[in-house]
Amino acid sequence: MNVNVTDSPGQAPSYLDQTEAVSARFDRLKKRPVVLEVKGLGKTFDSSQGPVTALKDINFKVHQREFVCVIGPSGCGKSTLIRILAGLEQASGGAVLLDGKPVDGPGPDRGMVFQGYTLFPWLTVKKNVMFGLQVSGRSGLPEQEALQWIDLVGLSKFANHYPHQLSGGMKQRVAIARALANQPRILLMDEPFGALDAQTQARMQSHLMEIWKNIDITIVFITHDLDEAIYLADRILVLKAHPGEVQEIIEVPVPQPRSPDHLETPEFIATKKHIESLIHPKSLDEEEGEHLNMMRMVHVDDAVGDIF
Amino acid sequence: MAHSSWFAVRQALAPRRRFVLSLMSFGLPLLIWCLVSYVPGIWHPMIKITDPGSASYFSDGMLLNKDLFYKEQIRLEKEGKAPPQGIPANPVYLPTPGAVATAFYTAFTTPPQRRDEKWLYQSLGDSISVIFLGFLISSLIAIPLGILAGTFDLFSRLTEPFVEFFRYLPAPAFGALAVAILGINEAPKIAIIVIGTFFQQVLVVANTTRKIDASLLEAAMTLGANRLHLLFRVVIPGMLPDLFRDVRVLLGWAWTYLIVAEMIGASSGITWFITQQARYKNFDNVYAAIMMIGFIGITTDLLLAWLSRRIFPWQRGIKA
Q1: Chain B nearest-CA residue for A190
Q2: Total-model pTM
Q3: What's the ipTM?
């Protein structure tokens, strides 16, 4: 299974090829206790055109301190999936088990970070982070604990600021601190960096990796960004649409710990190509008639007749 | 340049321009009033007699139609008698800004014409207490009910259909009923204000409550919040600034019901003052009293807006 990248420039490696170190790590990972298990999960919505199956027979396991990304074309139900995991929506069938116990409704054992920040605008950063500690009635000093989490995401200076005074990236760091302060078993993230600009997004990814490395947290992360998924994930759950089903669970062959340098490696590119072919099959694009009816609409004697 | 146009669509003007325009919004009506009052020839359809001359039925200070005055003047001149003298004037119902401004002060200093009548400040005080009590009673019930209806569908279905129906019943229609039940003094007036305010208030507050971003509730639930937490730690704090704004708007409505309410039973308060002064044709006092209501209203509103900015520092972009 060992692939020597430099010796075979002509032939691209397959995403299935893992170095010994990577392969050994996956063996160890799979021996860790299972935190989250999803069994035969299905979700049907009632619409005016009759029932619509959003999710069908989803099965997967997430091990302790694993980072799983969920990716898929729009309409594959990835948001529905994570909302069911969070308990914000009810599944039509199947079960979600957290540490072997079925999940019923939302709870502090599953933290969630939303794309839209969802910070409480009337509370300061500190009080936002304290919210979970206070409502779950945990003992200890919520204020001290909150400040520690704020420090962890590097926002100590902003503890007394209100959310509207923060940038998008900072808001999302507060949201992460707020979710982590409850010390959940699993952190669910629904396209958390989707609204951020590319640079902030990259910085947030590094922050998240640092946090993940240093605390006992298992992460399920929804994204539509292939690079983000491959860069962050141990394994990637690829969904397909109509109905939302698991298409493949990919073990990312890029070694951990990761850095932005890995974005250029052959295993990264091979994995990306493979997922791309899963999500956007060539034939499908043509089927959907995804081409523009273009004709030349520039005057013949226009000053700039040709842009090339 | 587009950005400096006075007519840029949905774009704020420069602060100085905005300030000048705000002044003009008061200044222009005042200017028109001044022009009509002080510049002869714009309107002035009447003549105010300064010297009745030998016209038997004219007297000093009398207001006459121009036609009648000139006819009489020509007649007396032909007969060789002393013609009446007069200056152009506006009808009695349009006093000059100066007269109204003076009335603002004198209305307070003039003692009541009869001993059992009230001074102006007492009448104003009565009005304010009726408004305050009516609005307070309405708010104490309507705000909690509105919040519950906006939060729980159960309360919404249980109350809103009826409230929706009842708010179409005009509050003044309950006047006679209120007097029959509550007597002729303050109580029926307060009741009219409550009836006029309460039903609108429930619906407005319920709708404001519903505007809370559902994702904030979801976030709170994933943090372990139970139903009571959602209500008291998310819904209520989240809606407070909007509630505050609702209260400001509704308080304005309550003032409009005041005038009707004060005519019910024994006429009282500022309405009594206005009707009384109109009877004596002291229209300067009438204008002054109407404007006092305006000033009290806008002062309360500005005060509440200022207070809102103070207690909700996290609310940016809410304009007064």
Answers
A1: B219
A2: 0.83
A3: 0.85
